[in-house]
# Entry
Amino acid sequence: MEQQWKSSIDDLNQRRENVAAAGGPERIAKQHDSGKLTARERMEALFDDGTFVEINDMITSRATDFGMDKKKRPGDGVVTGYGYIHGRIAFAASQDFTVGGGSLGEAQAMKICRAMDKAMEMKAPFISINDSGGARIEEGIDGLSGYADIFYRNTIASGVIPQISVILGPCAGGACYSPAITDYIFMAEKNSQMYITGPAVVKSVTGEVISSADLGGAAVHSSTSGVAHFVYPDDLSCLNGVRQLLGYLPQNNQDRPMRVEGRTRDNCAIISDLVPVDSRKPYDVRAVIDTFVDVNSFFEVQANFAKNIVVGFARLDGETIGIIANQSQCMAGSLEINASDKAARFIRFCDCFNIPLLTLVDVPAFLPGSQQEHGGIIRHGAKMLFAYSEATVPKVGLIMRKAYGGAYIAMNSKGTGADVVYAWPIAEIAVMGASGAVSIIGKKAIEQAEDPQAKKEELLDEYNKKFMNPYIAAEHGYVDEVILPEETREKIAAAFRMLKSKDRVQPAKKHGNIPL
Amino acid sequence: MELEKVLAMAVAAVAEENKTDVKRVVVRSFREVYKSSLEEYIEKNNITYHKYQLEDSKA
# Structure
């Protein structure tokens, strides 16, 4: 080998070592001591073994102010590239906290944007792993503007490719808005924080003293704010969660989710034991879901937020479906502001990515009260109606028990475009429950009766017989078929098979105006 | 393990896979593949880890 070759190769190897060294052994040890992986280790955990390819590893900052010329490191605090997840290509950016605290400057933003652009060109999912102190102050407006470039791309890519954010460290200030625009946010229990203003600023501005975790930790965002969709104990389990989620999704909006042949099971015979006929008695709707979807295939989204509605992905005969179900164990399954937001966003995601929808209805009402009215339940509830009505994917519904009033209409009713609606024989489809209805329509008759209690019971009996069943809805075409509980899997699977080639075209428009 | 032994085993494996004689396998170049940083971290911290595969949802 010529000497020139050898010295050039040695030089490249030295540069590669320099890139791989990231922020150096001390900072890497500190990262590990706090229970966090490094940016490259996270990429290794995210992608199929040996498939990650790093791009633009030597890009560095051009900034020189405030001593930046002495601080610059190759890679500029982010690792970007592509690899394969379940054999399908995906792109990712992983901020490197060991290099300048993962702070975002012009070069880092450019690297992330390039990876996003490639994901869009290849029509492949993009995963952003966030672990950063925020904008790099030394770079001034250039760093700040980098966020705008990312937000813009997030928005343009929305509904075209699945975008997933994984928060595995701090994510503060404007940086929060990239994850917020993406489809799903994953957080780790210990080390993830998201907030627009941190505890120190909160204290100085409002006087409120609050810890980082209480302000924007994983527990808060998964249960109270609804910002996070999935929470896992640590980095490795979190990245496994991303792998699991991607197994349900297509590569892009022109693609269909891949078929994953699993173990099918029809356990619908136990449904009549799980679901009490008395519509005031609760049960876990997730147990009902498990009776008919492919074994272990139900993957719940936002499990700890707005528990009165359950949403998630599952497979039926190997095909991905999205499920929306009222959960009678929480607020009797009524719809309120958070449940409406949660369901509407999930419905829209499924519609974006060609995932058929199954709606399981057991809903007494929209939750009444001034808190809900003043909080804007009209505006929020309208999101569900809008989302169901605009969705063109196959939409199958099953009315399990209660389906009352406006909440029934909002849960994929025939009039909002449901393709097939089934009902069990215990279903009660009415404007409202018997007690409330009788107290309104029978008020005078009860007051004037010699025995008001007897009159009330007589009217209740009449109302129950007339309205608290699925047959009038079936006679009027709002229910397509009343089915036995043991027929549930067979009927739902058949409906989705029939709807596979559904092609409903909406009128041309720029975009609808969903009530946000 | 000594480098020569590792190389000999690799050559034998390649020969077997290609159903040929070991003498016909020529080593032009080789490089050592080290454990990845993630593998080392998992081993050092005794972490039980299994990368999620689609097959796991079929169990």
